[in-house]
Design brief:
Helix 1 packs antiparallel against helix 2 and helix 1 packs antiparallel against helix 3. It is built from four helices and no strands. It is mostly helical and 92 residues long.
Length: 92
């Protein structure tokens, strides 16, 4: 993207927005999938055990989605080191 005219700031914004988008999508999918599996499979298995108690907890799945945002910032820092000319020379 830098080789076709995108500035570092624009690329950083792209990475962060992409990270936020992945966080929202993966968070929604993770919470939905974990809730469905928990309410069906896990609840059915745990109901037969006298020593286990079933509780639906959505917080861990929601927090796991937030990892995408700092990961996008780290990728931006690693990927945008050096000039675009150096990167293009390495590719060739």
């Amino acid at each position: 993207m830098r080789s076709i005219g995108m500035s570092r700031r624009q690329l950083r914004r792209l990475f962060l927005y992409e990270g936020i988008l992945y966080a929202v999508i993966s968070g929604a999918a993770g919470v939905l999938l974990s809730a469905v599996l928990s309410l069906t499979a896990v609840k059915a298995v745990v109901s037969g055990w006298w020593f286990a108690k079933y509780a639906l907890t959505i917080l861990p799945a929601s927090l796991a989605a937030l990892v995408c945002i700092p990961a996008a910032a780290v990728i931006d820092r690693v990927w945008n080191k050096g000039s675009i000319v150096e990167k293009l020379r390495r590719i060739e």
